[in-house]
Amino acid sequence: MSEKDDFDLQLFLPYLLNQAAEASSLAFNQIYKNRYGMLRTEWRVLFHLGIYGTLTAKEIGARAKSHKTKISRAVAALEGRRYLKRARRENDRRVEALELTALGTSVYNELREEARRYDSALSDQMSAEERDVLRKLLLRLSRS
Amino acid sequence: MSEKDDFDLQLFLPYLLNQAAEASSLAFNQIYKNRYGMLRTEWRVLFHLGIYGTLTAKEIGARAKSHKTKISRAVAALEGRRYLKRARRENDRRVEALELTALGTSVYNELREEARRYDSALSDQMSAEERDVLRKLLLRLSRS
DNA sequence: AAGTATTAGTTGATTTTGTAACTAACAACC
DNA sequence: GGTTGTTAGTTACAAAATCAACTAATACTT
Questions:
Q1: Which nucleotide lies closest to A42 by the C1' atom and the CA atom?
Q2: Which of A32, A53, B1, B52 is most buried, judged by most C-beta within 10 A?
Q3: pLDDT tens profile B57-85
Q4: Interstrand relation of A54-56 and B84-88 (parallel, antiparallel or unpaired)
C-alpha cells in the first residue's frame, strides 16, 4: 500500500476498536432499528431493564456509561411505545423506578434471542481460548 | 448485582466492543479535540494522508469505512485550517488529490507521537501474546 | 426554619451525523 | 455525436447526540 510513513493506523487500538465495534454491530443495529424502530440507547435501556428487572434512569446511565439526557429521551421513547412504565419512589420523589411492561418484556425476550444468536455467530469466528482472551481484554479496556 | 435474567450484556460482543472502544479512545479524543479543535473524522483523514501521502476523498472513505459526506466535510474543515491542499486531476477532473501541507504534516507528526505513546500505555495493560491475539481478532471482526 | 447546595430528571439550543437529492465530469451505447 | 448511465464530490434537510440551563425534590447548615 506504498506508505510514506510507518505508523500503522490499522493497529492503533482506539481506531481498531472503533472499526471492529462498528463492523460487528452493524447487522444487529438493523434488527432493533428496522424491526422495532429503536435507537441504540433505547435497546440498551431495554436490555438493562430486561436483565436487572427494575432500575432508575441514573443507575442505567451509570452502568451503560451514557449521559442522563440520552437515557431520559430513550426512556420517554420506550414509554411512548408502552415498553416500560415508571413509578415514583414514595420515599424520594425525585427518583423513578423503571420497569418493563409485558409488551416490553416480550420484545426484550425476542431481541435477547437475536443477541444470543448474533453473538454466537461472531464467536464462531474464533477459538474458545481466543474468545476468552478477547472478552477479558475488552473488559479490562472498558474499565480503564 | 441481582439479575433476574441470565443474559450477560457485559459479554455481548457488539456492546462490549463499543464500551471498550469508547473508554479506550476517550483520552485520545481530548487531545485532538482540545489541542487542535479536530473532530474524529478529521483526525482520521489527517492520519490517512500522513501515512499514505496522497489520496482522494473516495480512497480515504473506502479505507476508513466512512461515508463520503463525512469525508467531504472533514476535508473542507482541514482545508480551512490549512492542514491540506487539493489538486484536481487533469486527466479526470472529478477527482481531487489530497495532500497535507507543511502545517498539516507537522500537526500529524505531533499527533502520531501522541498516538504511539497512547497505544503503548494501552498495550502495557496486557502481555505481548494477549496484545497480538486482541489485534488479530479485532482485525478479523473489522472485516466481517 | 430559612437559606444554600445537591440530586434526579427534563427541556431547549447547538453541533454533528445521516440521508437524499444534487452538480459536474466522464463513460458507454446506439 | 447525442442520449443514458455512472462516478466524485457537495449541498440541503432531517435525525440524533452533546451541552447548558432548567424544575422539582431532598439534604445539609446555621
A1: D16
A2: A32
A3: 999 999 999 999 999 999 999 999 999 99
A4: unpaired
